[in-house]
Design brief:
By secondary structure, the protein is mainly beta. It contains 3 helices and 9 strands. It has one domain: Superoxide dismutase, copper/zinc binding domain (Immunoglobulin-like), CATH 2.60.40. The strands form 2 sheets. A 7-stranded antiparallel β-sheet has the order 5-8-9-1-2-3-7, covered by helices on one side. Strand 1 and strand 2 form a beta hairpin. The longest helix has 8 residues. It binds copper (II) ion and zinc ion.
Length: 178
Amino acid sequence: MYDDITSFQNTLKRSPDAVAMVAGSPAYPSIRGKVYLHQMASGVLLTAWINGLPQSKESCAPNIYGFHIHEGNMCKGNAEDPFADAGLHFNPKNCPHPAHAGDLPPLFGNQGFAYLSFFTDRFIVSQVIGRTVIIHSHVDNFTSQPSGDSGTKIACGVIERPKRQQTCQRCSAHPPLC
Ligand SMILES: [Cu+2]
Ligand SMILES: [Zn+2]
């Protein structure tokens, strides 16, 4: 299907098909990042750059954060759960966790920074436009129902088509889009 890594490298060089600008909740204002989604022939390449994650001072702290696409379309909520409106994990086939289409590998923090590039054929980009990416305070155990017991929602971003300005930052590569 993809017998060479260059197809992934080349995919990352083009403009993404969807972007989520991630921001922390009021309790985690330092979290900022971007999630890019590139549609490929047989699946989606999802790439995340996240800064400002909470970093434990303890030497053996895992600093791993659950990461999902949630079905809701807003990074809003209430005092108890600032991103409650993001709802449940994106799950169009009504599967148990961690077989939800929106279940993603966790983010591994490095002094608060995390990078992840991951391929999945559980959804196509157009299915998740308008939905949300959520980062959680704790690692997803990939067992507990309905969502892996990964703690509170600490950051959120709405998945959107790239804005014209973002597209035009790559004018030389994609002049027709400008
Ligand atoms: Cu989640
Ligand atoms: Zn799930």
